[in-house]
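I have a small job for you when you get a moment. Would you make up a two-line entry for one protein for me to read? No commentary is needed, just the two lines. Write everything out right here, beneath this request.
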Amino acid sequence: FRKKDSKRYEKQIKYKEMKPPSIVIVLVLLWSLPIMAAEEDVPQTAFCNESIQITSDSVQSTNPAIYRENIVWIKEYQQVMLFNKNLNRTTPVIDAYRVGEQPTIFEEKIVWIEFAEDAQVMMCDLRKNGHGGGCLENDAKTQVTSDLSLKLRPKIMKKTIVWQQFDGNDFEIMLCDFRKNGHAGGCLMNDTKEQLTNNSLEDKNVDITEEYLVWQTKKESNDEDITLYDRNTNKSETFEEPGNQQDPVIKQQKKDYQIVYWTNEMGNDDIMERTKKGKRKLMTSEYDEWMPAISK
């Protein structure tokens, strides 16, 4: 991906102002990646064993996310779609008259932002297909939020949904927990949600594991750093680095964690990894690399 829109302020959401060249979703099946020594860069060679185009050249397909055999994306800037690799079948999650954005999936649950008069976090469960809360096109979906604030970039992990929400001044990190449904902190529409950050800084692009959250914090100097939040201790730590660190993703490895993000601290945009043992460069070249993803 190239960062044509990386500097666009996320509050200024525009739909269908212009149609870029057609974008298709391609499923890439990978060889196992080699284990690299800490001082080595990951070689930029083709690991692809097989690629399968799963969308049509004639429609716009954006924002893909994957969990095991299921892939979700946005069709024509608004319709959430689902492809099951085992069944080789594509189905719509919402009808074409709704406006969905930024879908994500974990296990059987799909979460996205839906825009009508306002922006709401929505969810469906594949195990409920054909009933209320299911992921078939005509199933009534589960509304998680109800306030009028702008919400973006949801993520889900087991019993928790996180997202960024505009508080009138900047974005803050919000959370809800299915285990608290019907009470403060729950994920039912009328439950009061938990606000993790409350400051004058821009907190956005959150990702989550069972024990950790990670997000991007824009400081008053306009530099951007990575913040790690430990859900067991309720404490956060911001890793202050040269340049800008953006779009972190995290994977939990027992009591350790692996954060992958992109940074311009070395001049170009490079992919970096951080664990409890420190950080290392994963990929760098004369070209720019950004927008990393990591398997959960």
Summary: The CA atoms of residues 31 and 47 lie 6 Å apart. DSSP finds no helices and 22 strands in the chain. Residues 1-21, 29-47 have pLDDT under 50 and may be disordered.
